[in-house]
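Supplementary Note 3. Input sequence used for the single-chain structure prediction.
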Amino acid sequence: MTCMLFECFMKSKTIAIIGDGLGARLMLYRLSFHIEELLHILGEDTQLNIIQLADSRLMPDTSTYSTAHTGHSGVRPDVSPLGDLLIQGLNEVNSFFNEEIDRDKNWGIRPALSWHLGPSQKIAHRFSHQDNLITKFDQERSLCGPLNHFIFDPDVLLNRLSHESHSILKGKPRTKYSKVDSRVFQLSPFKSGDGHQTKISYAVGESIYELCADFVYSSTGGHDYFGVIEKDNSGENRINFGNIRPGVVWRIKMNEQNRMALFKCLKECSWTASHAEKMLSDGFVLNSSGPSSVLTYRADKFLMIGGTSQQQSVRSSDEKGLIFGHVYAPDWIQLSEMYQVFWDILFKSSEEFDFSRGEIVSGNRHYLSKRFPFCGEIGGENIFTRSTYACSNFLVRGLYKNGYNLSFLA
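The predicted structure, written as discrete structure tokens, is reproduced below.
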């Protein structure tokens, strides 16, 4: 995907990046390494303007409200298109980790161990290629692990990406970078003396502004108004604007009391006893498929229990009857069931762990059919818009639960 994006960048004079989550910041970071190449192609008299537009207050990203982890998790090649994509994404994460961590460890990415708990038949099928790691947990459930995983510290990673990008761009000739806290509410094609561009309308406070860009890269989750054209069961085209579901995390701040209580719990569990010290120092991930949820321990910082829940939905459409998808509210009963799973596994015998230090955080996650993401050209054959675009615009959406994997591919 990245190569295709840079082919379009080469024609640009003004680049607009919409969004401020992991996808947008990774794009800016990678772009910063290609500035000399772009300036050479654009010519000696050309100024390259890069502008980033985002407003986390009105369009909150989910990057910081996440259990933030990725791993193979039983995914095998040549089973499904999404699985193959996740394997590619994990390979990109691994390459990024090896390249950046080798020269500087302070990137907020850490290797860790993970386990998967679920119905025995489901675990046996999903991890049949790793059956030597499967053990019986109780009469109905089995456990697979330990597996290799990555845990992210979103604040550290996002801040580091921004810092590196800004430092690189600051030293480049004929290059101007700016970031505007704003809400983009319309993109429209615009024909100027320089050719075809995209006019971006955005709001700063109560004021409305416009700018024209030669290339637009949008990575805002579900906060846009583009639909992906898909085939329905009858073979007819349908327009899918995707659905918004809340990713809810119970985040518990760790102090020395909680660290020691967690260590005691890990030592008392037969499946974690031999790994307890490593898990406490490096962090760990525990996935449960009944109900679907995840516990992530980010060493020395947070213990997090998260999952996607849905209670009710609001379905909206425009004047032409085009469906804009569902917006779901959290189901707190489902969430309490998720918490109960991990309470029974790890903390049932603990009286020292202080759960009062917990807080609920939530962000909106956007998904498309079969959880398959989209990265493509706005106005291309797979994207529905009300206008025809002749310039280069790319859209990334539908990363859903896989943002800390697939963002490294886009």
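The longest strand covers residues 141-152. Residues 1-5, 312-324 have pLDDT under 50 and may be disordered.
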